[in-house]
Amino acid sequence: MARMEQAIKDMVDMFLEYANGDGKLNKDELKNMIQKEVQNPELKAKLGAVDFDKAMERMDKNRDGEIDFKEFLKCMSCMAKCYYHKKTGKGKECEEK
Amino acid sequence: MARMEQAIKDMVDMFLEYANGDGKLNKDELKNMIQKEVQNPELKAKLGAVDFDKAMERMDKNRDGEIDFKEFLKCMSCMAKCYYHKKTGKGKECEEK
Q1: B78 occurs within a structural domain
Q2: Is residue A83 part of a domain?
Q3: With an 8 Å Cβ cutoff, is A52 touching chain B?
């Protein structure tokens, strides 16, 4: 499958798998997703040190205590911008906190 | 590579490849990307019928005539929401126009 379609399909399928049927990720489901879907040691160490309460707070724009698909896509975009910055030096640097 | 990393890597690599070094996609580069990176017949037919001038207008938020990485990610998120809606019936339906 071509990359554009694969990336779109993977983002949707990942979310649906870990959101466990209710269409939202709670903190444990988000943690479980990141532990399983991130293998790169450097990224894993960075994300492993993340304060998940803070991360949830930043991602949970509508303050319902869970991450819906729209909020999840924002998180994916943020990580993509960090990787883009790392690769090109352009765009916004990642906020490590 | 795990799906989350692969999706992020593919979105960045695709953009950089088709943006040809200047960090922006012009209309021809966008068309070339979609022709090469979308193989699904149904999606290809849909996107093939798209008025690229209109699509550029909608994607080009800062009105500089080209698509930067941030605008490209918004487009990817929009397509992911369409696929999510198609798969679950939830979320926003795609605007076909």
Answers
A1: yes
A2: yes
A3: no
ipTM: 0.86
Domain count of the fold of chain A: 1
Residues of B in contact with A73 (CB under 8 A): 77, 80-81
Q: Which residues are CB-neighbours of A58 under 8 A, at least 6 positions away? A: none
Q: Judge if pTM exceeds 0.80.
A: yes
Per the domain annotation, does A43 fall within a domain? Answer: yes
| pLDDT tens digit sequence for B69-97 | 999 999 999 999 999 999 999 876 665 44
B57: containing domain: 3-88
Across the interface, of A2, A39, A80, the residue whose CB is closest to B37 is: A2
Kindly provide the residue ranges of all beta strands, DSSP E only, lying in A1-97, ordered along the sequence.
Answer: none
Provide the terminal-to-terminal Cα distance of chain A, rounded to the nearest Å: 36
Specify the amino acid at residue B56.
Answer: M
- Interface A-B: count of C-beta contacts within 8 A: 114
Query: Residue B8 and residue A90: Cβ atoms within 8 Å?
Result: no
Q: Is residue B93 part of a domain?
A: no
Identify which of A10, A33, A87 has the shortest CB distance to residue B12. A87
